[in-house]
Specification:
Length: 239
Amino acid sequence: MDSKEPPSSSQATAPSTGSSKSSVEAYLSPSLQDHVATESSSMLLGPSNVSSSAAPRVEPNFGRKVTKSRPLSHLKPDSLHIVLFSRWPIEPNSFHWGLYLHQNELSGGKKFHVDGRQGRWKTDHGTTKGALTSSMLIGLVRIADIPMHQVNTVAKLTTAEDAIINEIEGFRCRLYVERACERLKGQGHVQFTSWQVLQQDMEAFGNRYANEAEQNIQPRPIAVALKCELTPTSEEKAI
């Protein structure tokens, strides 16, 4: 999200990979770089003391910028997207979820997501121009068109539960997106009949392109959710 990302509440240093690891254009903060979670955990991030007998799950390296990415001009201005990231090892329906409120190709937009683990979740929101440039990005799916005069209202609804996320039973990044979308639906900003059906479509999209994300095949796909009563642009896949 902008030429200068807001600092995350916890910083981590990624190991050298031989490629740029600047977070300037990354969708999400470097706080998730090379974070490891246990394979058995149902949360985004598991305990830090991973057993040597268990295969570790490596979270997306959000700090490393990719090359030959899709330009922001391919995103419809004034639109809200669900963003999925691949996780390693790749498993069905196992993604990092976030929301991205796009303004235009010059200004970028606003990111909304959480990182952490059970009882220690933290929000990481801010502006960015890098919604399409983070490594392990699966893709973006447009779920609503948001007129400029509604942007602040949508942002407030999205973050309405930020102060209590660690009190929500079974909380995780996907649940953050789900609950935000349900609030937005309740106020008429997003149109869908059932979150469960929309989630299934998102998971099918993620499963289809997760391996390409891990291999950094560019450009990453952008799509539109037909169940949100939207019409695809020339750049969007329909799901």
